[in-house]
C-alpha cells in the first residue's frame, strides 16, 4: 500500500538505490548496501552520497542525465504547438513588458537599422515615403520586431543631416591627403524634366599611391550656362571643401566654349575630354561620305521596324531558330554616342543571314551586297576606336595612356590606307578621318599635363617621344621641382587661351559598352613598345650640378626596364617610392587625372532616376545629398 502511494520513479538516481519497503523515507545503496535517510522523499542526499563515496558511478549518472535532457528537448522541438495551446500559455509580467517594449532612438540596434535604411534610400534612388509603405513595414516587423518605426520626416532629416555630415567629414579627410587634386566636370540637362545639373568629381593619389574618385557635388544649375556663371560655380564648390585653386592640378571638361571660358576665368588648368574629341572626329568621318551615311540610315530604319513591333521580333527569333542561331536583337543607334553606330553595324553582321531571310518575306528594305561591304569596312576601321573608347572610359584609366593610344590609332589608320581597297569612296572617308584625327590631337606632346604624365608612367616612359621632346620634358620636371607653382598656375587668361587650343563643340560624351569583348588594344600597344631594341642607358649626371639628385633619379628611372602593360603603374611607384623620392611625388600628382570626364557622366545616370516626375517636390539640395551619399559611401565600405 505504501508503494502504491509513492510518487513515480523518474530520476536516473534509482539506478543505484532502492526504496526501503518498510520505511519509504529511507533508501538503500545498491553498491555499498548502506541505508540512508531521504527526509521529504527528495533525492538530494542520495546524489551527495553517490558523489562523495562512488565518484565513478556519479559521472555515469551525470552523463545519463544529460542524454535524458537532450532527448527531451528534441522531442519537444518535434512537437507541433497549436495556436490554442500557444494562447493558453501564460506569460509572466516581465515577459509581457519585454514583448511590448520597443527600442528607443539611442539603442545601438535601432541606430544600425536607421543607418542601413538611410543608405538604402540613397543607393536605390528610393523616395523617403518608402519607409511608410506596408510591404517595407511588414518586412522590418518580421526581421526586427522591437524596431520602432520612423516616418519619412525622420529619415529626411537623418539622411540629409546625420549621414551626410559624417560622410562629408570622411570625404574632407580623404581629399586632404592629396597634395594636388584633379577634377572632372560636366553639365547635363534631363530631356524629360528639363533640369540641368553641374557635377564635380575629385580624383587623387595619396602618398601610398592609392587612387580614388570622390563626388564632391552634383547640384541643379538653374542659371544661364555662361562662362562667367560657370567660373563662379566652380569657385564656390571648391571653397566649400577648402580647396584652393593653386592645389587644382587640372580640370577635365567637355569642349564647350562656355566651359573653356569658365576655366580661364577661374584660372584653372583644364583639358579636353579625350572621349569627347574621339566622338567629334569619328562622327565627322562617318558623315563625310554619302555611302556610309546612307547605309547607317537604312540600318536605323530597319532597327526601328523591329523595336516597334513585337511580332517582327518573334518572327526574327523563329528564323534564328531555323538557322540554329542564338536570339540576338537589333541594336539601336544613338546620335550622341558614336560607338552605338559601331555596335549597330556589329549586330547586323552577326544576324546577317536572319535579316536577309526576314527581308525576303516582309516589306522592309534589304541590305544590298555592296552595303554589307561598307558595314564590314566600317567595323574594320572603327574597331580600334571602339576599344580605345572603352579603355579610356574605364574607372582604372590614367591620363598617361592618351598619347600612346592616340599614336596607336594613327598608326592603325596609316596601315589601313596602305592596303589596296576596292572602294575609293571608303578610302577617302578614312583619309578624311585621319585628317580630322591628326588636327584634333596634334598638340598633345606640347601639353605638359599629357607629356609629363606619360613620361612618369613606367609602362611608357620616353618610348613615345622624340629625343628633343624627352629633353624638354626633363627640363620641365626640373623647373617644376625648383619652382612648383609655375607650371600649374597660369598667370593670365591670355596665356591659358594660347596654350590650350582644342576644338569648340559641346557634344555629350559617348557611353561605353558593357559587352565582353577580346580587346586587341593592349596587344597593339605592346607591339609598338617592343618594336625597337631595348632602351639605351644614359651616363651618370654631373654631380656638381645643383640639380644632381633629381637628374640622377631621372637617369635611373629611364634606365629601368619598362613595366608590362597589364601591370598597375601606381603599384610600381608604391614599391619604388623610396628610390625615387622626388619623382614619386610628381607621379602622385600627374597620374591622378582620368583621360575623360566619364566619372562625372556616370553621375547623371543616377541623377536621372532621382529627378523624375514622381519626385518633382524633392528639393534640389536634398537630391544633391542623395547622390553624394550614393556614390561616396562605398568608397569607405559604408564605414563612416
From TrEMBL:
It is found in: Nucleus. This is BED-type domain-containing protein. GO terms for molecular function: DNA binding; protein dimerization activity; zinc ion binding. One of its GO terms (cellular component) is nucleus. The keyword Zinc applies. Residues 484-517 are annotated as: Disordered. InterPro entries: HATC_C_dom (IPR008906), RNaseH-like_sf (IPR012337), Znf_BED (IPR003656), ZnF_BED_domain_contain (IPR052035), Znf_C2H2_sf (IPR036236). GO terms for biological process: post-embryonic development. Residues 8-61 form the BED-type domain. It comes from Bombyx mori (Silk moth). Keywords: DNA-binding, Metal-binding, Nucleus, Transcription, Transcription regulation, Zinc, Zinc-finger. Its main location: nucleus. Residues 493-504 have a biased composition (Basic and acidic residues). Pfam families: Dimer_Tnp_hAT (PF05699), zf-BED (PF02892).
Amino acid at each position: 500500500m505504501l508503494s502504491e502511494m509513492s510518487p513515480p520513479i523518474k530520476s536516473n538516481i534509482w539506478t543505484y538505490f532502492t526504496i526501503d519497503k518498510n520505511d519509504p523515507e529511507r533508501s538503500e545503496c545498491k553498491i555499498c548496501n548502506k541505508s540512508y535517510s531521504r527526509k521529504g522523499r527528495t533525492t538530494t542526499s542520495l546524489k551527495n552520497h553517490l558523489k562523495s563515496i562512488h565518484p565513478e558511478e556519479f559521472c555515469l549518472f551525470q552523463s545519463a542525465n544529460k542524454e535524458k535532457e537532450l532527448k527531451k528537448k528534441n522531442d519537444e522541438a518535434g512537437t507541433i504547438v497549436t495556436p490554442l495551446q500557444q494562447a493558453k500559455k501564460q506569460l509572466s509580467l516581465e515577459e509581457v513588458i519585454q514583448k511590448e517594449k520597443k527600442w528607443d532612438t539611442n539603442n545601438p540596434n535601432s541606430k544600425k537599422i536607421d543607418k542601413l535604411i538611410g543608405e538604402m534610400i540613397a543607393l536605390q534612388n528610393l523616395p523617403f515615403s518608402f519607409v511608410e509603405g506596408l510591404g517595407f513595414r511588414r518586412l522590418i516587423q518580421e526581421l526586427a520586431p522591437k524596431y520602432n518605426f520612423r516616418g519619412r520626416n525622420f529619415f529626411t532629416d537623418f539622411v540629409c543631416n546625420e549621414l551626410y555630415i559624417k560622410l562629408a567629414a570622411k570625404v574632407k579627410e580623404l581629399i586632404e591627403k592629396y597634395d594636388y587634386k584633379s577634377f572632372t566636370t560636366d553639365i547635363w540637362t534631363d530631356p524629360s524634366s528639363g533640369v540641368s545639373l553641374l557635377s564635380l568629381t575629385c580624383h587623387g593619389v595619396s602618398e601610398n599611391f592609392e587612387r580614388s574618385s570622390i563626388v564632391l557635388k552634383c547640384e541643379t544649375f538653374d542659371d544661364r550656362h555662361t562662362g562667367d556663371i560657370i567660373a563662379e560655380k566652380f569657385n564656390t564648390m571648391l571653397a566649400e571643401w577648402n580647396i584652393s585653386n593653386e592645389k587644382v592640378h587640372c580640370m577635365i571638361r567637355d569642349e564647350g566654349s562656355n566651359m573653356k571660358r569658365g576655366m580661364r576665368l577661374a584660372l584653372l588648368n583644364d583639358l579636353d575630354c579625350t572621349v569627347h574629341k574621339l566622338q567629334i572626329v569619328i562622327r565627322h568621318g562617318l558623315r563625310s561620305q554619302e555611302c556610309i551615311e546612307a547605309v547607317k540610315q537604312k540600318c536605323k530604319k530597319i532597327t526601328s521596324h523591329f523595336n516597334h513591333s513585337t511580332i517582327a521580333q518573334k518572327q526574327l527569333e523563329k528564323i534564328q531558330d531555323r538557322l540554329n542561331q542564338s536570339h540576338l536583337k537589333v541594336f539601336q543607334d544613338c546620335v550622341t554616342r558614336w560607338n552605338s553606330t559601331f555596335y549597330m553595324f556589329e549586330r547586323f553582321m552577326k544576324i546577317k543571314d536572319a535579316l536577309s531571310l526576314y527581308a525576303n518575306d516582309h516589306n522592309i528594305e534589304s541590305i544590298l551586297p555592296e552595303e554589307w561591304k561598307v558595314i564590314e569596312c566600317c567595323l574594320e576601321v572603327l574597331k580600334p576606336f571602339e576599344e580605345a573608347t572603352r579603355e579610356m572610359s574605364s574607372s582604372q584609366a590614367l591620363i598617361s595612356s592618351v598619347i600612346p593610344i592616340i599614336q596607336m590609332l594613327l598608326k592603325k589608320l596609316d596601315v589601313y590606307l596602305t592596303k589596296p581597297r576596292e572602294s575609293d569612296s571608303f578610302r577617302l572617308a578614312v583619309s578624311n578621318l585621319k585628317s580630322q584625327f591628326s588636327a584634333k590631337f596634334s598638340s598633345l606632346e606640347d601639353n605638359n599635363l599629357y607629356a609629363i604624365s606619360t613620361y612618369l608612367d613606367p609602362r611608357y616612359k620616353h618610348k613615345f617621344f622624340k629625343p628633343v621632346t624627352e629633353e624638354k620634358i626633363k627640363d620641365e620636371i626640373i623647373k617644376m621641382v625648383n619652382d612648383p607653382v609655375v607650371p600649374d598656375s597660369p598667370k593670365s587668361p591670355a596665356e591659358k587661351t594660347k596654350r590650350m587650343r582644342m576644338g569648340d563643340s559641346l557634344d555629350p560624351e559617348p557611353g561605353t559598352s558593357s559587352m565582353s569583348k577580346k580587346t586587341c588594344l593592349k596587344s597593339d600597344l605592346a607591339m609598338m613598345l617592343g618594336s625597337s631594341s631595348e632602351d639605351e642607358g644614359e651616363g651618370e649626371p654631373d654631380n656638381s650640378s645643383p640639380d644632381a639628385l633629381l637628374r640622377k633619379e631621372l637617369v635611373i628611372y629611364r634606365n629601368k626596364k619598362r613595366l608590362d602593360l597589364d601591370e598597375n603603374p601606381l603599384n610600381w611607384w608604391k614599391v619604388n617610392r623610396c628610390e625615387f623620392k622626388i619623382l614619386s611625388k610628381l607621379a602622385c600628382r600627374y597620374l591622378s587625372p582620368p583621360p575623360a570626364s566619364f566619372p562625372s557622366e556616370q553621375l547623371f545616370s543616377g541623377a536621372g532616376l532621382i529627378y523624375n516626375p514622381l519626385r518633382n517636390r524633392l528639393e534640389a539640395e536634398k537630391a544633391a545629398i542623395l547622390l553624394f551619399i550614393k556614390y561616396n559611401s562605398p568608397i569607405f565600405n559604408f564605414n563612416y
